[in-house]
Amino acid sequence: MSSGDLITRNYSNFLGVDFSDYNVSLYRSPDSKNMWKDYKKLGKSLSSRPGLKKFLTLSAKPYGIFFYKIATVQHIIIHAGVSLLDYNTQTETLTTIKATGMNPHESKAFIYNNIFYIKDGINYLTYNGTTVTDVTPYVPTTSIGRTPLGGGTDYNKVNLLTSYRKNSFVGDGTSKDYYLDVPSFDSGTATATVNGTSVAITEHASSGYVTFTTAPQVPDTDGQDNVVITFSRTVQGNPDIINNCTLAEVFDNRVFFSGNQNYPNSVFWSALNNPTYCPDTNYAREGLDAIPVRAMVTGNNALWVMKEPSQSNTSIFYHTPSIDEVEGATYPSNHSSISSGCISTGINFNDDVVLFTDFGLDGISGDIATEQLLAHRSSLVDAKMLSESKYKEPVLAEWQGYLLVFMGTHCYLADSRQQWTNTNHLEYEWYYWEMEKEITATGVLGDTLYLGATDGIYTLDKSVNVDSYWITARDTFENPNFQKITNKKGSVLDCDGNITLSTKIDNGSWEQIGEYTNVSTYIVPRIKKKKWKNIQFKISSSTPINVYDFTIQSYVGSYVKR
Questions:
Q1: Domain 6-49+468-559 in this protein, CATH class
Q2: Rounded-to-integer distance, Cα 245 and Cα 247, Å
């Protein structure tokens, strides 16, 4: 390269932001706000993000936004403050279905057998489209084939969600006293049926048996149970073991629970296909220390349990089904080979199990059949993201191929369609937004992203104006030791909208080149800058814009001087 040569630079095929340094790839931006790639519209080009549009006004902060179809009508279930609300999308009406009693804490929800279930850390509730109630627990039959004096076979385990249980007997036609499988039970709780018909009994609660007024008859089928006694035996704290869990994750047709501060390193799970039955033997402790579980994520053929960082060698555990001859399916805790802990939460992002650590967003490479390693995913935004005041309180949403990480009013977007290789692992390209509101909850239905803020629910609308800009990298035009001069006739910016173009040379200040309104194809800016070592360009707007590519020419001058 010699003095007088002409170099043509084309900025296109944009990749995302890089907040690690100003000397970044020419395809990335060292400083951008509210720009992204809308793949449904433009593909490789940049767009300003949609603005927020009020969808619903709320009087309390939302902690959860969920979706529940009743018959053919889509409903949005909103946990706001201490209340639970139902928005009917067909009639566009908002109804309070539970006025008080909800925990002002992030909630989790799932649907089973067309019933909506929600956990908030103090409640475990169901909603059938009409009424919100506490979960109606399954009442287990803890022993079967019993004689009036006892014996029989152990059957169901005690349900943590209820103090009630059943014993099943074979009547002998003469005995009136029937002994239960507990030494005592709660007074005033026992009922009985013989051949399915309710009959009168007298309780002896402190001695663990009941007396029938008439001796139950022998069953019609020899050896078949025909007497069932239902009773309550309170085990202090049992229901709160599940009720006080803040985490819920569906895996292998069971619901797994964790996040109970009284059992910080424990995971509990329901019976197969029954969210109302949590056997008291269905639990596992994740490690020997009491470091709390922060997240549970399903992926890579396992349920991953992520604990806070600790002095132990392992903070990530996993569960897979194991068959026991007595217990049936069990889910023993297995320690992974990962020592880094989870400081807030994790998610399965497009089949990539990721979690937030002290170092940023990390992903689990490998599955249960291989050695697991943490691979970093957020090198390009760590310099900014790790300094966020809400870094340990992210609100996540998976939307249109992006992982949206909201931290207060700031949002970081990991792009699943743009990845790059950093040494020996894949990382995401990222974009950065600044929102008009602090986001406290998210929900995604189809292509619609619902964002909860302190005053209501918002959606994204492309017609709503936002301030946005994209700054190019410091460009030396491949000649850092030569001065350059721009060719004022050699620049073309392909774009749409109202565009402001500015430039900055070396360590100077931004200088506006021009404002261009109602652009529909391209503009030809007249850029005349002399004797510069490096140059940057800023494309900005306060209205919706699209940026396709930018071409500029420069001549090589003499050597750089101090």
A1: mainly beta
A2: 6
